[in-house]
Amino acid sequence: MTAPLLSVRSASVSFGAFRALTDVSFDVDAGELVALIGPNGAGKTTLLNVLSGEIAPQTGSVQFDGETITGEAPHDIVARGLARTFQAAEPFQNLSVRENVMVGGVARHRMGLLSSMIGRGTAVLDHGRLRREGDEHLAAVGLADLADQPASILTAGQRRLLSIARVLASGARMLVLDEPGAGLNDREKRALGDIILSLSRAGKTILFIDHDMPLVSRLARRILVLDQGCIIADGEPADVRRNPRVLDAYLGR
Ligand code: ADP
């Protein structure tokens, strides 16, 4: 058996006297496509913040690719290949759509710049390569036609797709998507679903938050359910939908 790509062990987070996460443990294997659901205030965003290094858990640990990343800075976690989108991510309005994605790629190529400065490797910041890669990532999220447009003209749905392209540009193997479908209409949600499935088929490991059960069930083979800071279910969509604790905590309210 291979080790999981992501492993969260007994992670707990408190804000003052309030416990936002209590002993959260789960693994995600490389290549999995997992949905994270739960009622408002369940702790989903807090959990994403723990994964991406915005919040250090008071107890417990997070391992990625066999290494402990608990307490590491967000940019170091991105450099390891675990990157997320933010719900309210705003693009750089004055840059083109393509340039916004190229910015996401700079962080990765800076590693190459560093290694060339210390005499290892030959990579320097290559504008042409960043641009070509930016176009590939835009094509992957269906925004290729808008590459030269200013980001300011994008709709809310297109901004969410752009934030996924930026995460791809970071070179991430695991994508953590914070409500990528929020505020999208049905047509945009279908397109988003197709994009997430194609990224999954291309080998990306994906964990995403969404509230839309039809979308979640269409995409995910596995659903994690958080309620009041605890994982109350973890399994296939059909089982999770029938789980009495889930019905009580989430769907029945
Ligand atoms: P979800 O994303 O599932 O809606 P959150 O993780 O945003 O839930 O929040 C979980 C709980 O923790 C909520 O009750 C929220 O009010 C609380 N919380 C989140 N962040 C903070 C914070 N920085 N300070 C105090 N309480 C917080």
Question: How would you portray this structure in words?
Answer:
This protein has 253 residues and is an alpha/beta fold. The chain has a domain at 6-96 and 172-251: Rossmann fold, CATH 3.40.50.300. Helices cover 40% and strands 23% of the residues. It contains nine helices and ten strands. The protein has helices at residues 44-52, 74-80, 97-117, 127-140, 156-169, 186-201, 213-219, 237-242, 244-251, and strands at 6-15, 18-28, 33-37, 59-64, 67-68, 82-84, 174-177, 205-209, 222-227, 230-235. The protein has a six-stranded mixed beta sheet, sandwiched between helices. Helix 3 packs across helix 4 (127-140) and helix 4 crosses helix 5. It is globular, with a radius of gyration of 19 Å. It starts with 5 loop residues before the first strand and ends with a helix. Adenosine-5'-diphosphate is lined by residues 15, 18, 20, 38, 40-46.
